[in-house]
Automatic annotation (TrEMBL):
Transmembrane residue ranges: none
A Pfam family per the record: FAS1_DH_region
Xref: InterPro entries: FAS1-like_DH_region, HotDog_dom_sf, Mitochondrial_HTD2
Domain of life: Bacteria
Name under which the protein is recorded: MaoC family dehydratase N-terminal domain-containing protein
Domain FAS1-like dehydratase: 79-142
Amino acid sequence: MDFVIAIEKVRQDWLGRVRTIEDDVSPSMLRRIAAMLDLDPDAYPRGTPLPPHWVSLFAQESARQGDIGVDGHPEPGVTLPPIPLPRRMGAGRRVTLPGALRVGDALTKRAEVAAIEPKQARTGTICVLTMRHTYLVGGAVIAVDEFDAIYREAVPPGTPSPVNPGTPAPEGAAWSRTAQVSNALVFRYSAVTWNAHRIHYDADYARQAEGYPALVQNGGLTMQLLLDAAVENTPGHRLTGYTARLTRPIYVGAKITLAGGALEGGRMRAWVADQDGKLCAEMELDFA
């Protein structure tokens, strides 16, 4: 009952609250992004159009160092609602991409607390926070990204974190590629997105405090790699939106398979499988 009362207080105080973040889509930032994605860092001078889904790499929150908690996230209530559960992980998103982003644009992000929903799950009490990120250039909306994060109870020290046992990944892919989730790639993605969550770089913390067997790949990176692969395999089409769901952790150092079906009626299904063939992420993508 105390948890329900606490969540209702958070909802009253935070639901609908908006933060605005300004950013420049600068050539120097594009050099870092391109290099991180193993692309030519000199290929993005001012005015270059960017893949629409790259917009999520910009206008990140920048909490002060004194506001960072023991897990590496900003303390509750600094940039996100103070939900009274200690562990937070990305779960999925719904994105529309009506506009274009170019190198040199002045970008505005409106970050709105869209929903706070407590639930009872197989792993115990959870709360789902939905943030609605609206991106604008010159006052025009170029993207809307609704992002879900799941808050969970802490596991007792020395106890393994509950993990989805997984289901087999789909078969019959029209295209696929393998990727290596290296420490350096995860570090560089975390640097680009200003993400200091310790499960991505502090193995002792990941094992001892959060019960994972190894460092955990950043879910945003999983989605970035899958989106890039899907776009590369649909030449002549423009990505206009997608939904994504993360279903199973990927551990740093693992080899993964990025795959997708054929483009049919402007829609494609894509997914990520781990080295055991288990489904880790899936997407529905829309193209024009």
